[in-house]
Design a protein that fits this description.
Radius of gyration: 15 Å
Order of helices and strands: EHEEHEHEE
Helix content: 10-25%
Largest sheet: 6 strands, mixed
Strand order of the largest sheet: 1-6-5-4-2-3
Number of strands: 6
Bound molecules: tetrahydrodeoxyuridine
Strand content: 15-25%
Length: about 160
């Protein structure tokens, strides 16, 4: 028998250690949390995707009285981005969240499994790693790719 580890490298940075472009993307994701519709969880998530054509597309979680009919910020952003700009590649995504107290979360919120799988599709289309920035109130986690967040990901067959 052989064993192996699957590693998810994460860099924890202060906000001002990010490049100006990354700082802007995080601020846009934070701003998107104010367009979340979360009357049930009161957990407001925003996502901002930087595309190869220079556009930034945002999304925010949209809940529904029939709970599973709602969607996360990341999927609202990535589906909208590809529906709007099918020829553009995803370069980076920033994700921010505000908790039930309305404040930005201290610990960065990570995308759920379904969002990782959805984002992976667009990373595969891009043919290059899509960097992920998970924004907490004072610190940001930088992950090098979507694939690194989804060990043994399902792929098309
Ligand atoms: N949520 C997101 O928007 N992104 C995630 O990756 C995890 C969870 C949303 C879904 C729901 O509206 C709320 O956060 C609470 O789970």
């Amino acid at each position: 028998m052989k064993t192996f580890d699957v590693i998810t490298p994460i860099k924890a940075l202060d906000f001002d250690e990010l490049s100006i472009q990354e700082q802007n993307l995080v601020e846009i994701a934070r701003d998107a949390t104010y367009r979340s519709y979360a009357p049930y969880s009161h957990f407001r998530v925003g996502a901002a995707i930087l595309l190869s054509n220079g556009e930034v597309v945002t999304g925010a979680n949209q809940e529904n009285a029939a709970y599973p009919s709602g969607t996360c910020a990341e999927r609202s952003a990535c589906f909208y981005a590809h529906a709007q700009y099918p020829d553009a590649r995803f370069l980076k995504i920033a994700i921010a969240a505000r908790g039930t107290d309305g404040e930005f979360v201290t610990e960065p919120a990570a995308p759920c499994g379904a969002c990782r799988q959805a984002l992976l599709e667009y990373e595969t289309l891009a043919g290059a790693p899509v960097e992920i920035l998970l924004a907490g109130r004072d610190k940001v986690y930088r992950l090098e790719s979507v694939r690194s967040t989804l060990p043994l990901a399902f792929d098309s067959f």
